Structure formats: C-alpha cells, structure tokens
Amino acid sequence: MSFDLSNVIGELRTRELLPAAYDTVIASGSLIRGWGNPTSDLDVLVVTREPWVSSIGETNHVALEPNSLQYEITFVDDRRWDIEYWTAAQVEQVTAKVSREQFTADKGAWRTLSHHEIALLERLPYAAPADDGAWLERTRSVLADSAHRSVLVVNSLRQADSYTEDAAGQVARGDLHSAVISTKNAFSHAVDALQASQGQFGSLWPKWRARRMQILDPEILPFTDYWAVETMRTFDPDNPRKWVEETIAVCQRISMEVSV
Questions:
Q1: Interval 47-58: pLDDT, tens
Q2: pTM of the shown model
Q3: Minimal CB count within 10 Å: which of 78, 80, 148, 198?
Q4: What is the set of domains in the chain, with CATH numbers?
C-alpha cells in the first residue's frame, strides 16, 4: 500500500493545522514504507519557525529547548493523522547530539536523547517529503556525516546487555520465569541493534521487527534462525533454563559481531 502525499499540505492548511511560516512537511511510518494497511495512521512531521500552540492541550517531553513537543490529531478520509510540530531549532539540537564529536565524548549529549528524539532519528531515513524535499535532503546529509547510526546501535546494545545481565542473575537465583522474560527483552534489543547496524531503524516499533529481518536476512542471524527464537520454537516449559542460555548466547554473539 502506497500513500499519495500531494494533498498533505493542503489538508493541513484547510484544517488550520499549518503555521504561516514553516520549513518543511514530511511524512513517515508504515504507510510511507509501503507496509501500511487500511487502518494505519499517517505520521506527519511539521518543522516550524516558531513553536506551535497545540489545540489538544497536551504535549510530549523532549530534552531540548523548548522542552516540549506539540502535536495534533485529525482525520482525513477516515484515516487518522498524527501530526508532530518540531521547531527548526529543536531538530538542529537533535542532530547536534548525534555528531561524531558528541558520540566520542565521555559525557556526550547523545546520552540525553529522549523517546521522541530517538523516534525522530529512526523516522527520518524513511520519511517522504510533502514539499520539494530540499529540507529532508539537507537533513539526511547532516545525519550521514554524523554518528546517527552508531548512536542507535549503541542504544539498543546497552539495553540488550542490561537485560542479559538481569537474566544471568535471575538464573543464578533460580528465578527462571523472570529470566525467560528478561531474555526475550535482551533478544529484542540485540536484534534491533543488528538491524540498526545495517541501516534498518525502528527499535520503537517492534511490530515491524520481523519485516525488517526479512529485508535484511543477515548472515549473523538469518531470518529463519531469528524467527525460531522470536517464536520460542525450541522452548521447553520443563527446562526453561536451556532456552535462556541458548538465547543469551545468541545475544552475546550479536553484541560481539555487530558493527558500531
């Protein structure tokens, strides 16, 4: 399923959801990647000159200045549109956080990335412009010269390693039920890191993890092997420790072999 973006700006303007001064309007998400379905939302990002005042009266937090992210919700032809309003300054701050200098610094600003900032970084590579595309091309060029990919890989690796440690401790205490859950989380984050290392971003959208693995079918973890673990095909309820240890070994192999 593809989506026609030619009327996006017009629809926003008609609904008074477009500021007079803006830098770009882009769309991202499953519809733009061709993965959507009749009930999929359209994710729209508007980069503004001045902060937008949301009619919803709710905001999301970002570790930026200003520290809030405004959004709106509307429906066009029965399809929900989720619209985020980023100021140009906010986007510049996010891209600055993932510069090579910040990534190599002991206390680099990339460590302060919030949920919505990571979402922006994961969406931009798949975004499509509703305008001439000049802004998106420039921003992608900035990201290509930054540590964008490395930051997203390391974020997932850190999560994977944390859950791996949890699982090991839980096994040592004989808490195998908790160890299974920790191992599942470790595996998910390890796979996200592997995908990000090969240019497929989307750690915040686990529902598309299998689809990304089908696209990559990486040598480190071919899709058939991934799917066997994801569906816990070899899991024995009478011997959960065996599955935990085998899966943790897969996670550790990914962590050692993945390229940062």
A1: 999 999 988 877
A2: 0.95
A3: 78
A4: 8-146 (3.30.460.10), 149-257 (1.20.120.330)
